[in-house]
Amino acid sequence: FWINKRTLFEQFTFFNSYTKSMFASSDFTNIASFSQIAWCNISPLCAMIPSDQRVHFFDDQGNEFTNFSISRSARATSLAFSPVSGALAVGWNDGAVTVWRNGTVNEAPQVHRAPVNLISWDDASAYFLSASEDGTVCCWDTSTVILPLFKGVSRAVFTSAVWCPGDNPFAFLASNEGHLYTFESGQDSLKELCSCPKPIHALRIVPAVNRVIVVSGENYLSQYNLPPSLTKHNQVKLPAGDPPQFTSLRSDTLAYSIGDTIYISNFQNEELQILRTKNSQKVTSLHWSHYSAELFATTIDGFIYIWKSTMKGLVSKLGWSAPIISDLNVRIENAIW
Question: Which has the closest alpha carbon to 52: 83, 79, 25, 74?
Answer without folding.
Answer: 74
